[in-house]
Amino acid sequence: MKKFLNGKWFVRDNEGEFEFEGSVPGTVQQDLVDLALIPHPYKGLNEDIIIKLEPKDWMYERTFEFDESLSEDEELDLVFEGIDTLADIYLNDIHIGSTENMFLQYRFDIKDIVNTGKNKIKVVIKSPINIPKALEKNYGVLGGPEESARGYIRKAQYSYGWDWGARIATSGIWKSVYIEKYKKARLYGSTAYLEDLTGKVKIDGFIASNRVLDSEELFVDIFVNGEKIIELPVTKLYDEYKFSGVFTLSNLKLWFPRDLGTPYLYDFSFVLKDKNDEELYREDKRIGLRTVRVIQEKDAEGRTFIFEINGEKIFVKGANWIPSDNILTWLKDEDYEKLIKMAYDANMNMLRIWGGGIYEREKFYELCDELGIMVWQDFMFACLEYPDHLDWFRKLANEEVKMMVRNLRHHPSIVLWCGNNENNWGFDEWGNMTRKVDGYNLGNRLYLLDFPKICAQEDPSRMYWVSSPYGGETANSPKEGDRHVWNVWSMWQDYENYLHDTGRFISEFGFQGAPHWKTVEFFANEDEREIFHPVMIKHNKQIEGQERVMRFINGRFGAIEDFEKFVYLSQLNQAEAIKLGVEHWRSRKYLTAGTLYWQLNDSWPVVSWSCIDYFKRPKALYYYTKNFYSPVLPVMKFNKLTSDLELKVVNDLREALNIDIKFELYSFIGEKLFEKEYKTITGADSVTNIDTIKLHDYDLKNTVAYLYITTENGSIYRNYMVFDRFRNLNLQDPELKVEKNKEELIITCKKPAFGVRILSENDEKLEDNFFFLKPDEIKKLLLEDNEFQIKSLYDFLKK
Question: What number of other Cβ atoms are within 10 A of residue 454's Cβ?
């Protein structure tokens, strides 16, 4: 039985400035905005206002009635699924405990404290900055970017600001609160995983109680799809009670990620019973059975880093996931459903949960399980030295990782645990993370000693990886492990430099683009829509972010000053950059074994590296992703020295394909200069070389190449290439023609068109946008709006 205490609580600050009826789950910042007590922090320069709340303590109070009778063998817990972050908890004016980690569930035995009838509960939440600053003063400044004191508090690190996110250090009861009554004991961390492909299934889980248990009087029944499979005894191991066992499942159905097969999920039930066969507690979980490993074998370029699921290699195609709001309690299940479905529709098969955010809510992992999207799961340590030389911090960090692994390990979508984001790279190369104690960089005791041991004990079904990036002589080596490619963009290098990178698994690389025009309208008034207006600078959190955007626009498209051009061209440039990188790395299939670009989503409205902005509006990069992550990809690779153009086909499908290929050259005035057709078979899970075309006789500043593939089932895959920067090309007016037939939009052109963008009230519902068209090609899209604007790249470059 659970009695939820969610809903309205009385909230006030310790300085007497605010008193209001707040929400649980919720945060102070959410309530203040929702109640119009402060302006929206995502608009204009209002972020500065919300930062001023950080020194405050907050009191949450409410009363509740409790009329349940309690027998001798029943337990009663007060459960906080998540408090943000440092708090003291009182029930009927009795201090029952404290919290010190945003990510952990806290339980308190209240059987002897709760009253029959009326009860009063109070939660005092301490400032998210005062105590960390005091600890920093005592123990020393930690090296790394952003707020250095964040390393002394186990709270979402991005809440202190990041180079894509606002500084909104929230306070509140951010997850559910309830009273749970149960008999004698409860289950948690129940899981099942496949030991090998013969069907041998390992069962594991834990039993907790407020009393001393006689383990010989308890057992756990395991049901699979409604059928009882095995009964397992409860044993005591050190100070914990657990159950474990092995059985063989006949007619095994495997969980596969997309591109490999069906993500089948079994219905598992774990039922705790006593010697009288009475059910005491149960956990019901949908669990997929699969094996996973990362193949790391020596080869000519170093050592591979290839994910293998159920014995089959898979090229990883995906993006990095950050928290989808700076105020997490604004997020609803529907937000997760939309974002993850958008990732699926863009042909992604992996999301990396970045280590400066949160362990995501259950809904995230459930959706990934169901859709076959793999998850690279970082632990929440990012870009900082962490004080693991302090016993209290090391213990707290290890408890966090242990509990998170136990809570999440039943999800088949999680294919790897990772110790941190970029800390080991920082130790090697950044120069501001050099402090050592007893020979260890601060944090490395956790990543090298503690976390691998915890993961091996709690979850031998998947690999632990020290950091991202990691591997080789240095953490960010191109020869081994995973790699973050930030010489492009962050080091001001143009994206052509992607073509020189031979990393084995690219887990971060990115390029900035503005959000959707309507999103800009949300945070910037008309007179603030200037490229270097303070509001725009505020909404690009990278140091010299806007300057970088302009450097690469100017370099690729020519000098601009107009704000509308800035929004459009930054998006198109971002999409072209990531397209080039992905095509390069996919054409190296399994020499490079995956690309996860930075980043899928945003935490507030901002100019950033995302492909989907804060309001879940697709940017140009999102539409491009659908193409360059398609299971079959036509690729053209141009050699500037020889003017040779290589034609390739990447096939991620598990079957060979009979394909028809058409290669065409057009001039920008719409004249077809050359064409060649091919019929061939591309092998399963392969890269096929089709031809090498000599282009030295063509005026390449006036030429575009098209490569189209048609499969035997009628699927069409398209690509194009121009041979110089757009600013150097002689683009012509494509003479777009648009017809609207009810909800169908029909678009054609007479001359090559690039970056064709449709802007309307509901344009985010379009199946495609920012697309290219070859002369006389017909593009059909569904658009419910009758009023719309359509432009191509030519309209933004013409003088």
Answer: 23
